[in-house]
Amino acid sequence: MRQPNHHVLKDPDNGVADLIFTAETVDKWPLVISTKFNVPYLLYKKHYGKKIYGEIYSVDNKMRNNMDKFESHPEFYTRTKVQVQLDDNNDTVIDVWAYFIMDFKPQLLDLETYDDYNSYGSHGLQYVKGCEQDDFRDELLRIVLTIKVTNRKRPIEIN
Predict the structure, then answer these.
(1) Which of 94, 102, 98 is closest to 64 using CA atoms?
(2) Residues of the chain with pLDDT under 50
(3) In this structure, what CATH number is given to the domain that contains residue 139?
(4) What is the pLDDT of residues 17-57, one digit of tens each?
(5) d(CA 39, CA 55)
(6) Structural domain includes residue 16
(7) Cα separation of 102 and 43, whole Å?
(8) E strands along the chain, which residues?
(9) How many distinct structural domains can be found in the chain?
(10) By residue range, what is the domain housing residue 31?
């Protein structure tokens, strides 16, 4: 079953995205599910949580820019390189981009961590449509310490 936001990658108006590999992170990271919308969040705390398993896509610049916008980079998430080991049985390690929350509230680390995200998984925390709406910002303020608001001159932080 397709994940709720998979349509973003498949929309040709957003650019090109081709699935090329599945892989697992070399390091452990906390992947948690939080807010009333059951959104998965990858927290920037290396060596905590689990190795994350997922899909690796090759994207063009247009898709990357649209993904940055979709993921609210750099206001909320920060796109950061991580190393992954490919599922090709020959120990190939490459650098890929992932979207992390850098400045999160410490209580998020008390949540259960996952090694992948499936909205329809056994955790029973199905993604709730509507997190794109305005009240989602209130939910974000419950989990992050800082949201960066960018303008053309300089970033501003809201605490």
Answers:
(1) 98
(2) 151-159
(3) 3.10.490.10
(4) 999 999 999 999 999 999 888 889 999 999 999 999 999 99
(5) 18
(6) yes
(7) 6
(8) 17-29, 31-34, 39-42, 50-59, 78-86, 93-100, 147-150, 155-158
(9) 1
(10) 6-158
Residue type at position 55 = E
Place of tokens 């090709």: 88
**47: which 2 tokens?**
């060596």
Closest CA to 39 of 85, 75, 12, 76: 76
Amino acid letter for position 23: A
146 lies in a domain? yes
CB neighbour burial string for 109-126, b if at least 16 within 10 angstroms, e if fewer:
eebebbeebebeeeeebe
With the CA atoms of 149, 59, 118 and 114 taken in that order, what torsion angle do they form, in degrees rounded to the nearest 10? -70
Residues carrying an active site annotation: 71
For residue 30, give the amino acid letter.
P
In a domain, 1, yes or no: no
- Cα–Cα nearest to 136, from 14, 35, 17: 35
110 inside domain: yes
Rounded CA-CA distance 83/29 in Å is 12
**DSSP reduced 3-state for 137:** helix
